[in-house]
Amino acid sequence: xxxxxxxxxxxxxxxxxxxxxxxxxxxxxxxxxxxxxxxxxxxxxxxxxxxxxxxxxxxxxxxxxxxxxxxxxxxxxxxxxxxxxxxxxxxxxxxxxxxxxxxxxxxxxxxxxxxxxxxxxxxxxxxxxxxxxxxxxxxxxxxxxxxxxxxxxxxxxxxxxxxxxxxxxxxxxxxxxxxxxxxxxxxxxxxxxxxxxxxxxxxxxxxxxxxxxxxxxxxxxxxxxxxxxxxxxxxxxxxxxxxxxx
Length: 246
Hints:
The chain is of the alpha+beta class and 246 residues long. It is 50% helix and 14% strand. It starts with a helix and ends with a strand.
């Protein structure tokens, strides 16, 4: 088989696998073809079910199966790495058409992202802390500063919100007893603003006052809203969201 024919076969075989069914007009022998289809389905569903247990639990089984089949058929699975399937599933759920077409809960995309982010942070390489104050204060390099429209951190089979509830969460890797673990922290909107600003800024500030003034000016905030910033930083240092290298 020459390279052109091989490429054509691979493309057609990939399409056959993704459609998860066998038609009379298919060139692939049904027994062999359906075996491969089941193998792919079982592998992908295994990865997804393990990463998104709450998403699965809050849906009827038939809806969950339809979602998996829809993802296999139409999801962007261009990466050859199975480890990236869960991220691709999260990306697929960002498509509002999928939510509407399958009648999925409005919060499902955010819940899936929240369930996946722990795996993402777990697998991040060791990242150097980001220095933002010249006196040695830095931000955890694995920190994810997240904003959700729903209280995804409280969701379970027993609690499914009907309304939006803005939620701000930190997810990051911390060290405890010489071992790394992923940690979660719920914060308020002011803390979210401060940390997002620091993360996105390229500056290293001489002192906390100049940092505070820049945040107030950029977001047009009441200066009093940042009165507790030093206390906030102490809490974040204690929980390894920040590091003090003095």
